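To assess whether the prediction recovers the assembly geometry, we first specified each molecular entity separately, as shown.
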Amino acid sequence: MTWPGPGPDSGAASAAELLALRPNLGVLAQALCADAALAAPGRTAAVVSARVEQLITGHGSLAGFGTLTDAEQVVVVLAEQFLVDAHGIDDALMAAFGGHYSHEEQVAILFHLAMADGFTKFARVFDLPDSSPPDSSQPNPRQEA
Amino acid sequence: MSTTPRLPSAVAGLPANLGTILAHQPALAKGFSALYAQFWSHGVLDHVVKETARIRNARVTDCGY
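The predicted structure of the complete assembly is given in tokenized form:
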């Protein structure tokens, strides 16, 4: 399916114009991104973000994370299926996911995945440079080792 | 997709839905609610545009909301 595009009088605005008009939303979104990163296990959150970025943009690698644990490998499979077609996440995959993570952790990881997927696409559509939320105090796990 | 929620509600007495599942992470639920309220109640877009986008997204992603 292809979106036919905006009409000539759609008044389409740039990302900078939208954020200037809606600064509170930008602040809330950035804070929520930071919360999601903090709520999910740090390394797992970083793996999710890296894999989402890699799948959407075709750039990046998981090589810097070293050998992934069994739990992280399930998260990568889940992330891939989430992006390709969430309907394909079946009971078996969720059972494997649940075998490694508590309910609280599952919600945190899926929330982080949803945020990473959504806002990575948001950034790609507006052709924004890669960056972390400016008010995020979350250390980058990839820089900790 | 499963027709049975794969996680239990985090709120006693209420069924599993987006809100009660997010409640497993109260801070995220609170932040998400604030963001969602900001989006739907304020801003430069009228509700026709918001609803059009919401309904189209729901149709494409098979979302029940």
